[in-house]
Amino acid sequence: MLNCRELVQETTANPDLLEGSRLRLSVRLHLMMCRYCRRYVRQLQRLLALLRRQHDSDKTCPPETVERVLAEIRQAELKQPDPPAS
Amino acid sequence: MASPEDTIDLDALRAGDQAVFAELIRRYHTALLGLVRPMVGDAHAEEVVQEAWIKAHKHCSRFAGRSTIKTWLCSIAVNEARMQLRHDKRESELRMQDSSGEDPYLERFNSQGSWSSPPAAWQADSPEALLAQGNLADCLEKTLTQLPGNQQALIQLRDIDGEAFETICNELALSASNARVLLHRARGALYRMLEHYEETGEC
């Protein structure tokens, strides 16, 4: 029989928890009986839903940074041109 | 809703279109810096990401599209950071970082494995309600940027971007079991922050 610690371990490490992957029978049975673990999994899913909302908030960088990076790339490629294909 | 990736013209990128490459830099440079900073430190982060851009530029014609472009860029940056650590003979630091941090749930269970300190009910009952609370987004961001490199990469790529787990493991050269351990630690750290925030209203 799965205990609470094992349930937390298994659900927190489950990469597909938010996608509603089918949980193991032992996990589902434990969740039916344990309100604290039900609460934990619900809260963890809320955290994951919150993270998914961060998706579009990637911070862009200013044009001068882009220019600087591109200039360094050009410098590096001048110093070390691609070797001819063998 | 279209993902930001949808607006990158991959054919043009592979054909060497500099405007498309510049757009990649504009979108992802800050994220890549955030990713490598915990691995190599402030002093080396810019240099490592610059080197990653040089590699990406050199090889973008061969980008196969097996992962998203962001995952591909992240894997190049993480590899560059690893090379930097190897160069500085600091590889062991990376292993220590990855396994750093105690189990976030260490004190929460008794010897039988039952909750000794169970989760309390939260006021907010939806992601919207959670985000409506003051500076929670900033707190999340702060906790995320303090996670060790591979843990941060896993949260970024799996939980934020929704990339396939198997693809992430391949790109970051992590075994699935190791990646699960890191995911457990990283999510645990974020959960603990959120729980604390719910209790106190502070990060």
From TrEMBL, chain A:
Q: What is this protein called?
A: Anti-sigma-YlaC factor YlaD
Q: Which organism is it from?
A: Methylohalomonas lacus
InterPro entries linked to this entry: Anti_sigma_zinc_sf (IPR041916)
From TrEMBL, chain B:
DNA-binding as a keyword of this entry, yes or no, is: no
Pfam families membership: Sigma70_r2, Sigma70_r4_2
GO MF annotation list: DNA binding; sigma factor activity
UniProt keyword annotation of rRNA-binding present: no
Listed under GO biological process in this entry are: DNA-templated transcription initiation
Q: Which InterPro entries match?
A: RNA_pol_sigma-70-like (IPR039425), RNA_pol_sigma-70_dom (IPR014284), RNA_pol_sigma70_r2 (IPR007627), RNA_pol_sigma70_r4_t2 (IPR013249), RNA_pol_sigma_r2 (IPR013325), RNA_pol_sigma_r3/r4-like (IPR013324), WH-like_DNA-bd_sf (IPR036388)
**Domain RNA polymerase sigma factor 70 region 4 type, chain residue ranges per copy:** 138-190
Positions of the RNA polymerase sigma-70 region domain: 24-90
Q: Which UniProt keywords apply?
A: Sigma factor, Transcription, Transcription regulation
Instruction: Tell me its family.
Output: Belongs to the sigma-70 factor family. ECF subfamily.
- PANTHER family recorded: ECF RNA POLYMERASE SIGMA-E FACTOR, RNA POLYMERASE ECF-TYPE SIGMA FACTO
Name of the molecule in the record: RNA polymerase sigma-70 factor (ECF subfamily)
Q: Which organism is it from?
A: Methylohalomonas lacus
The record lists the lineage as: Bacteria, Pseudomonadati, Pseudomonadota, Gammaproteobacteria, Methylohalomonadales
